[in-house]
Amino acid sequence: MEGIEKNQFVSSLQDRTKSFVLRSIKVFKALPSTEEARIIGKQFLRSASSVGANYRAVCRSRSQNEFFAKLSVTIEEADESLFWLEIIAEAGILPIEKLNSLMTEAEELVKILSKARKNTR
Predict the structure, then answer these.
(1) How far is CA 11 from the centre of its chain?
(2) 67: which of 31, 36, 45, 113 lies 20 to 30 Å off by Cα?
(3) Which branch of life, at top level (predicted)?
(4) Cα 20 to Cα 34: distance, rounded to the nearest angstrom
């Protein structure tokens, strides 16, 4: 990747992970006021917000090893977010139709970040 293309990719992914967090907050706010929704929702919001925060940390990595480690954490958090979205849908807490778009974004982020990690080896 050329320097300008790489910078655009990084900037685009920063925007995308931030948008993922903001969209996740909206899903969290839409959860019903039940005990299970509150517990699962907090787990989901923690992992989803970590995606954006950890990707920012990836961009500030000081070494290849730090980059790889932080990117791995970001991938894990995106995958965990997807897991909690699946639980929210399958437990009937929110209808799948309200979650499909965010689930797709989580899947895409996992794929993109995994490929980026693979390319760093």
Answers:
(1) 16
(2) 45
(3) Bacteria
(4) 24
Q: What does the buried/exposed string (b/e) look like for 66-82 if buried means 16 or more CB atoms within 10 Å of the residue's CB?
A: ebeebbebbbbbbbbbb
9: tokens are 């990719």
Question: Mapping DSSP to helix (H, G, I), strand (E, B) and coil, where does residue 110 land?
Answer: helix
Cβ neighbours for 69, distance < 8 A, ≥ 6 positions apart = none
* Full-model pTM: 0.92
| Dihedrals phi, psi of 62, to nearest 5 degrees | -100, -10
List, in order of start, the domains of the chain with CATH numbers: 3-120 (1.20.1440.60)
